[in-house]
Prior knowledge:
Layout: H1 7-19, E1 24-29, H2 36-47, E2 51-57, H3 59-66, H4 75-83, E3 90-94, H5 100-106, E4 110-114, E5 130-134, H6 142-158
Parallel strand pairs: 1-2, 1-4, 2-3, 4-5
Amino acid sequence: MNKIKNLKELKNIAKNLKSKGNKLVFTNGCFDLIHPGHIKILKEAKKQGDILIVGINSDSSIKKIKGNLRPILNQNARVEIISSIEYVDYVTIFDEPTPYRIIKTLKPDILVKGGDWYNKKVIGETMVDKVYFVKLLKGYSSTKLIEKILNKYGKHNQTN
Length: 160
């Protein structure tokens, strides 16, 4: 089964699944360099309902949010990786800085966010039944991974 869908395809799929009583869960992110923190969020998200849909920021969206040096992996690579994870049922890419349009279109029952969003305004929170926060794994982020790689290998590569 091809898990990668555009929003129009997902709208029909979501409508059909909801009509059969399935609880839809949505989460989103850049998923630039996949690490154990991402896997934990996806695993916990899947436990919240029947179908997990993941929105992935497009390359241009990430550049707007994180600057021109990101993403490290392009959107096709990130979508391929996320769609291969067993907890994920569907994946879509969005160009906007936020997943508002996806949430409004798909009308998921539950939004899942990392614990760093606790006590912050969550886009789409008024359109869902519940927002579930996953406690982050300490020390894991794509930014920290990039910094670690640069610290460990940056000077080494400059001398070769």
